[in-house]
Amino acid sequence: MKKRCFWPLLLPVGLAGIMLACIYLNRSQSTLVDCKLRLLTGYHCPGCGGTRCAESILTGNWSTAFGHNLMLTMGFIVFMTWSCYLIVRVSILGKPAPALPNVWAPWLWLGMVSIALFTVLRNVPVHPLTLLAP
Amino acid sequence: MADWYYSRDNAQQGPVSDLEIRNLITTRQITEETIIWREGMEGWLPLKDVQDFQSAAADSATAPDTAAPLTTPQSTSGIAPGTAATTDGLAIASLVCGILSIVFCGFFTGIPAVICGHKSLAKIKANPSMVGGKVLAIIGLVTGYLSIAFSVLFLIVLFLGFITEIPTDTL
Question: Is-contact B140 B113, C-beta < 8 A?
């Protein structure tokens, strides 16, 4: 009998919960989800527009979601794809999850460089890079 | 000729003459790494560093050596992070938390980043050849600390805003 673990199901649920919490906080006049970097320095942090992005995704406006925060929207797609893969592999097929230490190092470096690049580029006030800013 | 002492099987041997030393080299009972001493020398030195025997030692060293090498094995510390035996899961967790804390300007994931980072570094330090990911853990640590520092700074500014009654709608 294959052992079935159901923790991968928590992944999309957890993410949806976080997105809903951000949207709720935003709507309830709280300043908790306002970008603090922007408040202090005026620059966009990599997460700027994240709450607006979450709202667009959950209401189905994908084009505006990309406009609010390209990186987070793509990250959402990647995360959901990976979660589906894990759900199928671990919860349905019962195979063990791929171990964390086996993550191929270049992927991590690629991710970090992309985030850094995105952060720098979205703060450049030159069109078309201004499309990256929320 | 001065009397030489040499170390073999962790015990001091000698005194012997130069000639004896040379014989020992030729018959490979001692190698260029064997430490030797004579009166007048400050401390024990490997044969290869002692001028008198450098050529003799060099000659014997070029011949095939059947004795076990006395040098330590090649250190693995030059291996790039991530290509060591396994990357520590905690290091990756620290990195992910750290990056998330930068992306979302918050200390929520900054604190686990710092905790995981320190634990991971301790693990890697204890077993460097088997556990990799040092750079990843360091990045996680740095980003974690940065986000915590930034959050603290922000809270201070906010607090100052409250107590000095700077209108917060301009922030």
Answer: yes
Mutate to test the interface with A, among B87, B101, B103 (most CBs of A within 10 A): B103
User: By the 8 A CB rule, do A90 and A5 touch?
Assistant: yes
Q: Is residue A29 part of a domain?
A: yes
Residues B99 and B56 in one domain: no
Asked if A55 contacts A21 with a C-beta cutoff of 8 angstroms, the reply is no
The closest CB to that of A45, out of B86, B105, B133, belongs to: B105
Q: Which residues of B touch A101 (CB under 8 A)?
A: 86-89, 92, 133
**Which amino acid, A76?**
F
> Which tokens is A110 given?
């690629």
Res A102: pLDDT: 65
CB contact (8 A) between residue B82 and residue A108: yes
Domains of chain B: total: 2
Tell me the chain A residues in contact with residue B87 when contact means C-beta distances shorter than 8 Å: 101-103, 105
Using CB atoms, pick whichever of B92, B106, B139 lies closest to residue A103. Answer: B92
Considering only A112-116, B25-29, B112-116, B119-123, which range has the smallest mean pLDDT? B25-29
Residues counted in chain A: 134
Could you list the residue range(s) of the whole structural domain that residue B128 is in? 86-170
Find the helix or strand (DSSP H, E) in which B27 lies. none
Q: Are strands B45-46 and B35-38 parallel, antiparallel or unpaired?
A: antiparallel
Percent of chain B with pLDDT over 70: 78
What is the per-residue pLDDT across A88-102, written as a single tens digit (0 to 9) for each? 888 888 888 777 666
| Orientation angle between helical segments A70-86 and A50-59, nearest 10 degrees | 60
Token pair in block for residue B71: 């040098």
